[in-house]
Amino acid sequence: MASCCPTMKFQRPFGLNRKVVSDSGRVSSFWGAEVVKANHLKAQWTSEDSDKAHSLFLLLRIAVSKCRILDLIKAGGYCEPLLRTPRADPKNVASIILGGGAGTRLFPLTSKRAKPAVPIGGCYRLIDIPMSNCINSGIRKIFILTQFNSFSLNRHLSRTYNFGNGVNFGDGFVEVLAATQTSGDAGKKWFQGTADAVRQFIWVFEDAKTKNVEHVLILSGDHLYRMDYMNFVQKHIESNADITVSCVPMDESRASDYGLLKIDESGQIIQFSEKPKGDDLKAMQVDTTVLGLPPKEAAELPYIASMGVYVFRKEVLLKLLRSSYPTSNDFGSEIIPLAVKEHNVQAFLFNDYWEDIGTIGSFFDANLALTEQPPKFQFYDPKTPFFTSPRFLPPTKILDSIVSHGCFLRECSVQHSIVGIRSRVESGVELQDTMMMGADFYQTEAEIASLLAEGKVPIGVGENTKIRNCIIDKNAKIGKNVFIANADGVEEGDRQVEGFYIRSGITVVLKNATIRDGLHL
């Protein structure tokens, strides 16, 4: 259930992380680059001194010699750390979520609401995806840019993500930046594109609240995925990139709907084409085994597609929008293709579930895919939960039964019973006249599989178990093929060792108790 965000396994640029020292004392980089004044370069790269660290990296990359690593190894050389890779700090990262598009491809769902406000998965809205990913990644500086039909979106954000509502989030904030007009000719235009939307609010990065920001995430408000953004930022830092683009392998049938890219052996993007067609599309085919894909999968996915998720060094973003390309209005079709020619633009492989919810068809399919067994994506993950507005609604009532929030019910029968929060009821189970209190926490699918493999019982009710006239306290573990019905009609019974009592003819399974497989009560 946990998300998987592997980075591309390319060699890092030479001379960045290690030095090689021969017996003679000669210092060289890992691929033969001689390090000048190495003793003076053993500085820590910290988030407070990024400019100095960046200069050190540049110096290390320039200082090269003809020394070869194999000759050095034969001479008895050895390696030792030269410059420790800095760790990404979420306090130095700000996120900008783009929510201002008209959403014409999602019409009529967007006739009265912004695209990120469209409901998904029964109780969430699309904006909850990037917001929850930010929170789970530790990122607390979040801006949302809005323009079209933003009332319901703004209301949802204020109700759900009010970091100052009695909860101490330090210097965190969620700021809604609505499209507005200002004085002057330039100020009379609405957002002209994704880059222009950020440009019009670029002054916020001169505010005191963002003075320590070093990296800026650009996120979309209409994608479905689970991602740890700090892995993304870490790859960005390790590759010394100006810009990093998150990407996914893509098949030919959908490739023309996305920005496609080509990379070199170091992971640097050397070509970027926005939604190419025909021969231009064919020209963007690559051998995706370079991403670590097996040959069969690589043949099915011969393109590398941009997710529209970027991380910029803050000073690079400001320069691109203000001076380098002041008339370019879109990141995907203008800023990124131009920046590839002049900057170190790296690729980051996200090889997990990701879906662009941009059309009625993709929206419909993504929602129904949540019901598959097992689903490719699910909202249920106790380690990285998805947040939404608290609604304080009663549990679901189905015929003569009540099912509470966050339950897993698989092909079971529930009659005249109550199923408590986070309950897991497996296939073939029959509950009748039963009050099940639920669980205080989830066990992951991996944990459940491990317990079953060891012959142990996970929390919940196992397969083909029949339960009648029973109260099941929280976190109880009831195994497979169990029969609980008090068939002998006992009125009072104390069987604590076996995990239950009988009171007034009602079987009461104790909190945290384990009822072993096949037991008949």
Number of domains: 3
Briefly note the structural class of the backbone: alpha/beta
The CATH architecture of the largest domain is Alpha-Beta Complex
CATH superfamily of the largest domain: Spore Coat Polysaccharide Biosynthesis Protein SpsA, Chain A
* Count of individual helical segments: 13
How many extended strands?
31
> Which stretches are poorly predicted, pLDDT < 50 over at least 5 residues?
1-48, 58-76
Question: What percent strand?
Answer: 15-25%
CATH topology of the largest domain, by name, is Spore Coat Polysaccharide Biosynthesis Protein SpsA, Chain A
Q: Roughly how many Å is the radius of gyration?
A: 28 Å
CATH class of the largest domain: Alpha Beta
Given the C-alpha coordinates, what overall shape results? elongated
Rounded mean pLDDT is 82
Largest sheet: 10 strands, mixed
Query: How widely separated are the two ends?
Result: 34 Å
Query: Into which percent range does the helicity of residues fall?
Result: 10-25%
Enzyme class: transferase
Protein name: Glucose-1-phosphate adenylyltransferase
Pathway: Glycan biosynthesis; starch biosynthesis
Pfam family, one: NTP_transferase
Please tell me about this protein's structure.
Its EC number is 2.7.7.27. Pathway: Glycan biosynthesis; starch biosynthesis. One of its GO terms (biological process) is glycogen biosynthetic process. Pfam families: LbH_GLGC, NTP_transferase. The chain has 13 helices and 31 strands. The protein is α/β, with parallel strands linked by helices. It has 3 domains: 64 residues, no CATH class; 183 residues, Alpha-Beta Complex (Spore Coat Polysaccharide Biosynthesis Protein SpsA, Chain A); 120 residues, UDP N-Acetylglucosamine Acyltransferase, domain 1, CATH 2.160.10.10. Strands 17, 18, 20, 21, 23, 25, 27, 28, 29 and 30 form a 10-stranded mixed beta sheet that branches. Strands 8-7-4-9-14-11-15 form a 7-stranded mixed beta sheet, with helices on both faces. The chain has a 3-stranded antiparallel beta sheet with strand order 2-1-3. A hairpin with a 2-residue loop joins strand 17 and strand 18. The two termini are 34 Å apart.
